[in-house]
Amino acid sequence: MPVDRVQVAAAVIRDGDRVFATQRGYGEFKDWWEFPGGKIEPGETPEEALVREIKEELSADIHVGKLLHTVEWDYPKFHLTMHCYMCSLVADALHLNEHEAAKWLTASTLSSVNWLPADLALIPLIEQELSTRQVSI
User: What range defines the domain where residue 95 resides?
Assistant: First the structure.
């Protein structure tokens, strides 16, 4: 079992019947798809980390909604704890500062990208979320 433990927060940004996915442009998992977010810094809550990370990665402001799920995943070099929140954009503008590509995906297209293993674990929950009417979060 990996010794290093990494705590991150991920944003499942929803707009109607679709969610926003990003493709990594760097590192060991380059070209894999994920929900945007990043490491939680000391003293930060997961929600605060998400607001900061989305501002850094996408130059966007978000509303952080409910906790969808916390994923525990063992990667070869570390153990990941990923707190995943349903989010919405404050404004429609998004800019890719770190990712190589991005897509808005619907329930029927969620499986069309090569998800990182920890993110893949969220897909059934997101499909369920997308089948419900979106309310303000």
Answer: 5-129
Is 134 within the bounds of a domain? Answer: no
Q: Are 117 and 34 in contact (CB under 8 A)?
A: no
DSSP conformational letter for 128: H
Structural domains counted in the chain: 1
**pTM of this structure:** 0.91
Q: Can you read off the two tokens belonging to residue 117?
A: 């293993």
Write the CATH number for 96. 3.90.79.10
- Phi-psi sector, 43: left (phi>0), alpha (psi -120 to 50), beta: left
- Identify the DSSP state of 134: P
Summarize pLDDT for 53-99 with one digit per residue, the tens.
999 999 999 999 999 999 999 998 899 999 999 999 998 888 888 88
